[in-house]
Design a protein that fits this description.
This protein is of the alpha/beta class. The chain is built from five helices and five strands. Helix 3 crosses helix 4. The N terminus is likely disordered.
Amino acid sequence: MQGQIQPQTPGAQPVYVGIDVCKDHLDIHLHPLGHGLRLANDRDGVSRLKRLLARHDVARVVLEPTASYHRLVHRSLAQAGWPVAVVNPLRARLFAEVLGSRAKTDRVDAKMLAILGATLAPRPRRRRPKRSRNCGSWCMRAPPRPRSAPRSPTG
């Protein structure tokens, strides 16, 4: 962890957390505190993140879906009771461009996600039921519509 982040006092300002998810690590930014850090994207790293977030008045956690690498942190934080919004990566990129950020680094992305959370207040995403989480993306597709019988030219 980069430096010590001091616990907030009761009644402190709300904190918006941006998380840029990669296969091996999580880049985290706390807005408006301006603190950033990098943790491993594994159970130990997520546990450390939860201990960090417990020290702050977290209003919203914002992250982008990254293949399946975001699922551990999303599931763990949502189960712990933090509001987690999963935003479309294109929406996040366009938001960063509007703010004038052209840099595309993990730390900058985490910062932009935190600012997006404070500015646009994306709705927290509810977790899918366990049954549909386990079956993959094919469960999320609508069933095929039955084809109607072909019409005869006379009828």
